TrEMBL record:
It comes from Deinococcus piscis. Pathway: Metabolic intermediate biosynthesis; acetyl-CoA biosynthesis; acetyl-CoA from acetate: step 1/2. It holds the Pfam family Acetate_kinase. It comes from the Bacteria. The active site is at 146 (proton donor/acceptor). Mg(2+) binds at residues 7, 383. Its EC number is 2.7.2.1. HAMAP family: Acetate_kinase. Substrate binds at residue 89. The keyword Transferase applies. PANTHER family: ACETATE KINASE. This is Acetate kinase. Mg(2+). Can also accept Mn(2+).
Length: 397
């Protein structure tokens, strides 16, 4: 039995066909530049430990054509009959969903109603759902929400100190994102460290292009650094994270920008890219900093300072703090960023293990600290597997 997992962006579609129990992937790939002339699709087929890759044009096709190509590939590989359900990553489920949901017309309507909260993501997710339902009408389709895991936050964590009507009438509150990754990684860490599933405290740092920290108590999200949108919180690849909201009006007045332009710059031209003036890619920044690039060094230092501050502040919201968990492209690979972060957290009882930290990269997982109050551990995230598992669980296949 296999689950087809789809993660659909406005001009891209990531897909994977995998076994929700073993996690074995049979087919995966990425369609890009959808809706444009150069639309293309990459297919990776896995069999007997070997990977066979091909890339082809989609002839200007969009989500429908990409899904049709995936379907044709499943037929060609003789795998179509094995597909039991389709799991869709959906970014925003508002306050309605605290768990995955079988996609019905009512569920689709709620995803549509959440468009104002995620104007770029939810329409793209709906386009993927529509294309997949047309291609696989006989299969159950499940929506797995980025926001769902964080619905266990309490008002003290999710409310902003703004007029009440902004919340009750307009839904202005903190929702949090990366929930699928945080939930998966937290579960893995509990198993790896032999913690009690019903009594533990973790702080998970998901550090990729987007970055967020979540505190997890007894399997439940207590607080998370992304807010109403993914702009809040940490310094990220191109996002500023927390800034004084008054700077929007200031830049409109002083620089003659529109509100949309300022918001666009905070999302796409800020963060590591804005600070360094060089790149949003941590690998490139580490290299440049080693060669004496002052902007790259400042970007790294600010990234780490904000990260360590956030982690430390989340420790106060937990009953107990057992472990700090690193994941995502930076968290899983950058021993430098991890070392700098752990160094700053020394006063909270974290004792880094330099050698273990250095060697835990490129898919290696495990503990990177010595005995202390808190254990630091690296866990590889796997959102596709989590979506496949939750989908299989919901449709009971
Ligand atoms: P996304 O959020 O798009 O899924 P990833 O989780 O793949 O992104 O993370 C991308 C980030 O991980 C980039 O900043 C990249 O530079 C960083 N990264 C990947 N490998 C390394 C490495 N060896 N050292 C430092 N940073 C790395």
């Amino acid at each position: 039995m296999q689950i087809l997992v789809l993660n659909s962006g406005s001009s891209s579609l990531k897909f994977a066909l995998l076994d929700p129990v073993s996690g074995d992937v049979r087919l995966s790939g990425l369609a890009e530049r959808l809706g444009q002339e150069e639309a293309s699709i990459r297919l990776d087929r896995f069999a007997g430990g070997e990977r066979e890759r091909s890339e082809e044009s989609l002839g200007g096709g969009a989500h429908t054509e990409a899904v049709a190509r995936v379907l044709a590939e499943l037929d060609a590989l003789g795998l179509r009959a094995d597909v039991a359900a389709v799991g869709h990553r959906v970014v925003h489920g508002g306050e309605t969903f605290n768990a995955p949901a079988l996609i019905t017309p009512e569920v689709e309507a709620v995803i549509r109603a959440c468009i104002p909260l995620a104007p770029l993501h939810n329409p793209a997710n709906l386009a993927g759902i529509e294309a997949a339902r047309a291609a696989f009408p006989e299969l159950p389709h499940v929506a797995v929400f980025d926001t769902a895991f964080h619905q266990t936050m309490r008002p003290v964590a999710y409310r902003y100190a703004v007029p009440e009507e902004w919340y009750t009438h307009y839904g202005v509150r903190r929702y949090g994102f990366h929930g699928t990754s945080h939930q998966y990684v937290a579960g893995q860490a509990v198993r790896m460290l032999g913690l009690n599933p019903g009594r533990h405290g973790l702080i998970v740092a998901h550090l990729g292009n987007g970055c967020s920290v979540t505190s997890v108590q007894d399997g439940k999200s207590r607080d998370t650094s992304m807010g109403m949108t993914p702009l809040e919180g940490l310094v990220m690849g191109t996002r500023s994270g927390n800034v004084d909201p008054s700077l929007v009006e200031y830049m409109v007045r002083e620089a003659g920008m529109t509100v949309q332009e300022v918001t666009g710059a905070l999302n796409k031209e800020s963060g590591l890219l804005g600070l360094s003036g060089l790149s949003n890619d941590m690998r490139e920044l580490e290299e440049a900093a080693r060669n004496g690039h002052a902007g790259a060094q400042l970007a790294i230092d600010k990234f780490v300072y904000r990260l360590a501050q956030t982690i430390a502040s989340y420790a106060v919201g937990l009953h107990r703090w057992d472990a700090l968990v690193f994941t995502g492209g930076i968290g899983e690979n950058s021993s430098y960023i991890r070392a700098l972060t752990m160094e700053r957290l020394g006063s909270l009882g974290l004792v880094p293990d330099e050698r273990a930290n250095e060697s835990t990269v490129r898919g290696e997982q495990g503990v990177i600290s010595r005995e202390g109050w808190v254990t630091a551990v690296v866990v590889s995230t796997n959102e596709e597997l989590m979506i496949a598992r939750q989908t299989a669980e919901l449709v009971k296949v």
